Amino acid sequence: MSTIAHISDIHLAPLPKVRLRDLINKRATGYINWKLKRNHDMCPDAAKNLADHLSSQRADISVVTGDLVNLALPKEVETATKWLRRLGTSSQVCMVPGNHDAYLHGALAKAQKAYGPYASGETLDQSPYPFVRRVGQVAVIGCSSAIATPPFIAAGHFDKKQGERLTKCLQILGDAGFFRIVAIHHPPIKQFIRPYRKALAGAKLFRQILKANGAEMVLHGHTHKSSIHTIEGLDSKIPVIGVAAASTCPSSNSPPARYNLFKIEKLQNRWSCTMREFGYQRVGENIVQRLQLRIY
Fold this sequence. Notes:
six-stranded mixed beta sheet, alpha/beta, 26% strand
């Protein structure tokens, strides 16, 4: 049996000191949004406490589907690196980037360098995505949808070249009998095609690849909501699972901070997968199990 945890959209708070020269770019609009809204939604201790609770589960791999930071300031990346270490070692934790991790041109490359082995794994060539992490009979395939975008745009992109590499990974791992989990920040399903400024360009290509080659599960973030949808697979529908943002205060109008925990094992010729969701309630300060659901 393998245990896989999923946590996303950390948006570590509070913001470090912001200088005027830091705001002569897209960060200006992001900073205003932080001051007017996100500052009140995100609790500084929520992500730390959630990480500690998740760590106590001793998952084989914890998958972080992006947006560790808010404005991709250097100090934020330092804080995010410490938070990843708090979650576990680089052999226990892997992360794929979100749009906030690539907030400005060059930000993603700096983040990848800082996070190092947390943001990498086995690859087919020199391209960093997709990468693969394997534990037991489970393989996590980390894809990137993170690109720098203009102000007011939070869209992602999945291109043909990454798609070709993902196809090969799915085929190789499928032939070897792995339970294949594809991790990506932006949701690749039709339900999130609008608004376009937040959607995933290349989502149709992503779905076509999974329909042709199969996968057992897709994990994503970005929406700040817990959700379960499906897309067509090779032989059956593939669960597509999102999770609420890991820093959201219980008092916020948005869903409070949560993470998911999956127990996966093969029983004879079929997979068994059970998901449990842990997080804050609207009332109280404790992290509790909110639901249990059989996926397979």
